[in-house]
Design brief:
By secondary structure, this protein is an alpha+beta fold. It contains five helices and 23 strands. The chain is about 15% helix and about 35% strand. α1 packs parallel to α4.
């Protein structure tokens, strides 16, 4: 089976990297708010970075495992525990059937992610497993998770190669002020020089109006040349809208597909995870960068993720000839898996061999 939801928490949904290709029909992209944390969670359990994860907002859920599974919890520290014992974030851990995963509070950051080795058995709708709450599409019946929901694992695992190395450094969410880098435009020419200077040199406070759709901020008024309304055009994740009231609104994962307010800038992709972990009351500064700088930062992060995935998913080399025989004997099947060290009896062309494996090795099943 998989997991049973005992308590759904405040807002717990299924998300992947989003539903692309449908904005022209009015369907939002949705997807995870913190792409960095979700990507790392998937990499740590051997998944593709676009595999569906569980996104937890603020107060987390309680879930019981009905099958052994390797998971990774990343993002904010929401007090994850397995049977009452703390779970180390950013590390692949094995949860046994019958154990309970719960979240006990907020100790830094506002969103956590759970990745499951092999993925969750959630239908693909319009190319994605993400939940769009407004449209009631995708995820688990198009809604947040609640008591009694059951989700099966697609290909659960109780062992992965390089288990001891499946760990990543913990990020810090302790700061109360953050700097978000932005690329100016597309309507920055609708603002006065004073307005641009205000935007780039002021401190803004995240208001209580912050959800998966957008993040409203309060602070010094950003001056327009001729008001904040424009002919409706497209909106992207991270777009900074400035309506006539002069305060910025950063569009988040569930942003609408179009809007009629001036957009002074766009938060760069690698900084959106920072905002995703912020809470109302925190302070924000905006810093201008070029498109080339933003792209270089994105490419650097992607290269880091690719290198980590390659390292963790490289097959372990056989330690001796007996292990090589074990691998060769099993290779007649089609699907790869991983086995722990131990003693195994195998049959090759009718002959039986007793093989002792001192290291984890790949086999086929």
């Amino acid at each position: 089976m998989g997991i049973q939801i005992i308590n759904g928490g405040f807002l717990t949904t299924i998300q992947d990297m989003g539903r692309y290709g449908y904005q022209e029909t009015g369907m939002s992209v949705s997807g995870v708010m913190d792409t960095r944390a979700a990507s790392l969670a998937n990499i740590l359990v051997g998944n593709d970075t676009n595999e569906a994860v569980i996104e937890i907002t603020m107060m987390g859920p309680t879930m019981k495992f009905t099958e052994d599974e390797i998971i990774a919890v990343t993002g904010g520290d929401l007090g994850a525990k397995i049977d009452g014992k703390p779970v180390e974030r950013y590390r692949a851990v094995l949860v046994k059937a019958g154990q309970t995963l719960s979240f006990m509070g907020m100790y830094g950051g506002s969103r956590a992610y759970i990745a499951f080795a092999g993925g969750l058995d959630i239908p693909v709708v319009m190319g994605s497993r993400s939940t769009n709450l407004k449209s009631k599409v995708g995820g688990y019946e198009g809604r947040k998770l609640g008591t009694g929901d059951e989700i099966a694992f697609r290909a659960p695992a109780s062992w992965l190669p390089h288990m001891a190395e499946r760990v990543y450094g913990l990020p810090s969410y302790g700061a109360k002020e953050w700097t978000l880098r932005v690329v100016m435009g597309p309507q920055d020419d609708c603002f006065t020089d004073k307005g641009i200077n205000t935007f780039l040199n002021s401190t803004y406070t995240i208001s209580n109006e912050y959800d998966r759709m957008g993040c409203r901020m309060e602070g010094d008024v950003i001056e327009h040349k001729n008001g904040g309304d424009i002919i409706t055009d497209g909106i992207s994740f991270g777009a900074v809208q400035v309506p006539s009231h002069g305060n910025p609104i950063v569009m988040m994962a569930d942003h609408q597909t179009t809007g009629g307010y001036t957009k002074i800038a766009n938060v760069i992709s690698v900084d959106l995870p920072v905002l995703a972990q912020c809470m109302p009351g925190m302070k924000i500064h905006f810093e201008k960068v070029t498109v080339d700088e933003a792209q270089a930062l994105y490419c650097k992060e992607k290269e880091e993720f690719d290198a980590l995935a390659k390292k963790l998913n490289t097959p372990v080399e056989p330690a001796d000839d007996e292990q090589a025989v074990a691998i060769a004997a099993a290779s007649e099947a089609n699907k790869t898996a991983w086995v722990k060290a131990g003693t195994y009896k195998i049959s090759v062309n009718g002959k039986e061999f007793l093989v002792e494996l001192e290291k984890e090795v790949v086999r086929f099943r």
